[in-house]
Amino acid sequence: MNALLVPSSLPMQAPPFDKIKDSDYQPAIEEGMKQQLAQIDVIANNPDAPTFDNTFVEMEKSGELLTRSARIFFALVQANTNDTLQAAQVALAPKLAEHADAIHLNAKLFQRVKAVYDARESSGLDDVQKRLVEKTYTDFVRAGAQLSDEDQTKLRALNKEESTLSTEFQNKLLAGTNAAAVEVDDKAQLDGLGEGG
């Protein structure tokens, strides 16, 4: 069983690394994307008028599995990667870009976000709620929600390419850094260097 598919029972939901295999991350993240898109589809197609609760709160609650598994995965990739994790990172990069675009470029979802944004001053939202609405609306606009269909298609291709190239660059940079490492097996070779710290 993939331990990432269920919330951890450890204190503060710390990851149960003793139960997680390197091969668990990619399927958990892919399942998380699938679940979140299904949740987003429900929000976008809600027949009720858009409100903070039925749009923004529901969006914030979506993607719990994706968030949990991706946070663990990317922290591990940055701190202690290996060939399996790097291969998963390369495979996931364009999929995650497509996933983000599927949310930010979802016209029905953006119309709900915009409706709440347009009514933010008159709908009784507190300052924190208003800030979330404004930030989310701005994020959608900056991600291309107001672009034409043709431009959104171009943007999707660019985002996918950028994510792939960025991941390749990170992996090449890591390989170069590792190749430049100097291993010392005789303490005498360190004479003259400070203790550091």
Question: What does this protein look like?
Answer:
This protein is mainly α and 197 residues long. It has a single domain (18-178), classed as Neurolysin, domain 3, CATH 1.10.1370. It contains 7 helices and no strands. It is elongated, with a radius of gyration of 22 Å. The model has no long low-confidence stretch (mean pLDDT 95).
Task: Name the descriptors.
Neurolysin, domain 3, single chain, mainly alpha, 7 helices, 197 residues
What is the total tally of β strands?
0
Work out the helicity level: 55-70%
**CATH architecture group name:** Orthogonal Bundle
Helix and strand element order: HHHHHHH
Unreliable stretches covering 5 or more consecutive residues: none
Oligomer type? single chain
Structural class: mainly alpha
The mean pLDDT is: 95
Our measurement of the CA-to-CA distance between the termini, rounded to an integer number of angstroms, reads: 42 Å
For the sheet with most strands, the description reads: none
Rg calc: 22 Å
Strand percentage, roughly?
under 5%
Number of domains: 1
CATH topology: Neurolysin, domain 3
Global shape: elongated
CATH class: Mainly Alpha
Could you give a quick summary of the protein structure above?
This protein has 197 residues and is an all-alpha fold. Helix content is 64%, strand content 0%. It is elongated and about 75 Å long.
